[in-house]
Write a structure and sequence with these properties.
Blueprint: E1 3-9, H1 17-26, E2 32-38, H2 43-50, E3 55-59, H3 65-78, E4 83-87, H4 96-99, E5 106-108, H5 113-122, E6 132-136, E7 139-142, E8 172-175, E9 178-179, E10 197-198, H6 201-214, E11 217-220, H7 229-242, E12 248-252, H8 260-269, E13 275-282, H9 286-291, H10 298-308, E14 313-320, H11 327-338, E15 344-349, H12 357-360, E16 368-369, E17 377-379, H13 385-401, H14 408-417, H15 421-432, H16 439-453, H17 458-469, H18 486-495, E18 504-512, H19 514-520, E19 525-534, E20 541-546, H20 547-559
Helix pairs in contact: 2-3, 6-7, 7-8, 13-15, 14-17, 15-16, 16-17, 18-20
């Protein structure tokens, strides 16, 4: 029996760990193949690649289920004899509405290792296999799988051993060290498995070493990587002992339980840029947290972030739409978390994932959500459609102006004065009115409302100009500040040994020491000159020179 393990990844750079594990465990079946596609590929092309197999097994998630089902439909049109097997979190819950589809023959519910192996062994007999949903006419057959897969069976298994080595480096490579989550957050599928199981340590280290040598970005799938102090320190030390120069490691961290020994380890040993921590704050509203059985101490979380922010790259998450989270609560959460100035702040909207308690209780809170993936909130008793539209505009502004980052200095300054909720909402709404804006458009759209709101604030005017001029590799068009003409700056910069004949420059006066402000956050007033130097390849060099020093150097040269 020829069988294909496959999936449709969201992007080419992603990799699917599930199908690799299943292939590694069952590769002794000579006719078993595996292959990855992406959701952007043409469905008919994917279907033709799959239709020559007797059994095609798809790994399904909210981001690919729609495209996957369309591929399955086309496979059946090409070859009705091909059997379609679906597995993964998107079909493990409410599977009845999927198995009745003409293009679906089988579904694996929950962990797939044991059911898939049994299915291959017993093929073509498919009924009565624990964990496998099958159908005969209109009759659906399902025997629950009550046995938990023993992770010790993964000893000696390297899921990436069968990849072409040269294809690994540009991809995000996933690794798991445990399964399950100790928390019971009702919006998360991980909350349904509260028994945390760890993979064999030697297996973890062997695979990690392989990925370090052949990959670049390595992402740990553990829902709470730092749950055990000794385990966390063991893996961290192993990474420090063996990592390659360009490796980056991503972890999901619960900040308010980060042990002080782990913090000390990070501060003393971890070089900046090596670790990336994804921290789900979700909301600052404690009532909303408790309503979805989520525990969090935001004050402690803030303290921990402050202690590690110089050593790790931070990605913070918020969720819009939780029960008891009204617009003012969301405003407070966004402004509070933004004030931590994470390099990335992701604003997600509540998704009603199949199997989660928040989906089962949706009527209790007056939720309306999209019936199609990704099942996002449309409205609730706590947020109207108009309010959600406002927040979606803010999310657009946040992605465009902070996460890129294009207005990092300006937004930090504004957040210290009054928070960023209002201005990001306004900027996002303006962006939505323009189709495919250029980079210059993006800045011009932001300048008008900021300049109008802060008419007499010279600091924000200068910071906006700095954001603009430092964002380009190539000398940008003159905007937002009065630039010195070339005839004025050329002889002055030439005397200071700038490469005025081979590089490009923008020069303008400022009323405070910009470099001092960037270093300390404090304003030192005076007459200064900012020089931006562009080489066309890297971020521009910026110098801030006291105006008097610039003139004195020129006068001294003339005297000589």
């Amino acid at each position: 029996m020829r069988c294909l393990l496959t999936t449709l990844n969201a992007k080419y750079i992603h990799s699917n760990l599930a199908i690799r594990i299943l292939y590694a465990l069952n590769r002794h079946h000579a006719s078993l193949d595996w292959k990855e596609f992406t959701i952007k590929e043409d469905a008919s092309d994917i279907a033709r690649s799959c239709a020559t197999y007797e059994l095609v097994a798809f790994s399904c998630y909210i981001w690919n289920i729609t495209q996957t089902l369309e591929v399955c439909r086309q496979i059946k049109q090409i070859n009705p004899e091909t059997k379609i097997l679906l597995g993964g979190p998107e079909v493990s819950y409410d599977y009845h509405e999927v198995i009745v589809r003409d293009e679906v023959d089988l579904i694996i519910v929950g962990e797939g290792e044991q059911p898939f192996s049994t299915l291959l062994q017993k093929w073509p007999e498919v009924t009565g296999i624990p964990g496998v949903v099958s159908k005969s006419g209109s009759q659906i057959c399902y025997l629950p799988n009550n046995e938990t897969f023993a992770l010790e069976k993964l000893e000696g298994i390297n899921p990436y051993a069968f990849d072409e080595i040269e294809t690994l480096r540009p991809k995000v490579l996933y690794i798991e060290t445990s399964r399950g989550c100790p928390y019971k957050c009702e919006f998360c599928l991980a909350s349904l498995d509260n028994k945390v199981r760890y993979l064999p340590m030697e297996r973890i280290k062997d695979n990690l070493l392989f990925l370090m040598h052949h990959g670049k970005t390595i992402k740990f799938l553990d829902r709470t990587f730092n749950m055990k102090r000794d385990f966390t320190l063991n893996i961290f030390q192993f990474i420090l002992d063996h990592h390659q120069a360009d490796n980056v490691f991503q972890f999901e961290i619960t900040a308010d339980i980060l042990h002080h020994d782990i913090i000390a380890f990070i501060q003393e040993k971890v070089p900046p840029g090596l670790f990336r921590f994804e921290i789900g704050i979700q909301t600052v509203n404690q009532q909303a947290n408790l309503e979805v059985k989520r525990k969090q101490n935001f004050e402690r979380t803030t303290s921990i972030i402050r202690q590690v922010e110089k050593y790790v790259t931070l990605h913070l998450d918020l969720i819009v739409g939780l029960p008891l989270d009204y617009l003012d609560d969301i405003r407070h959460s966004i402004d509070s978390v933004f004030a931590l100035y994470p390099p990335e702040l992701q604003l997600g909207f509540l998704k009603f994932l199949k199997g989660t308690p928040v989906r089962e209780r949706y009527q209790e809170y007056g939720y309306v959500f999209d019936p199609l993936p990704p099942y996002e909130i449309i409205e609730s008793r706590f947020l109207s459609r108009h309010e959600l539209q406002q927040i979606r505009a803010l999310e657009h502004g946040l992605e465009t102006y902070w996460n890129k980052p294009r207005l990092a200095l300006s937004l930090q300054y504004i957040s210290q004065k009054e928070g960023v909720f209002e201005i990001l909402t306004l900027l996002g709404a303006r962006l939505s009115d323009v189709k495919s804006p250029t980079l210059l458009n993006i800045y011009e759209l932001a300048h008008q409302p900021i300049a109008a709101k802060y008419t007499d604030d010279v600091v924000i005017q200068i910071l906006f100009a700095l954001d603009y001029y430092r964002h380009f590799f190539i000398k940008p068009a003159p905007r937002f500040v009065d630039l010195w003409p070339k005839g004025k700056w050329l002889p002055l910069l030439e005397q200071r040994n700038y490469q005025v004949h081979s590089l490009r420059y923008h020069v303008f006066s400022v009323p405070f020491d910009v470099q001092h402000y960037l270093d300390t956050g404090k304003l030192l007033w005076g007459e200064f000159v900012v020089v931006f130097e562009y080489n066309g390849k890297t971020s521009p060099r910026m110098d801030c020179i006291p105006h008097q020093d610039l003139l004195l150097r020129s006068q001294e040269t003339l005297k000589v």
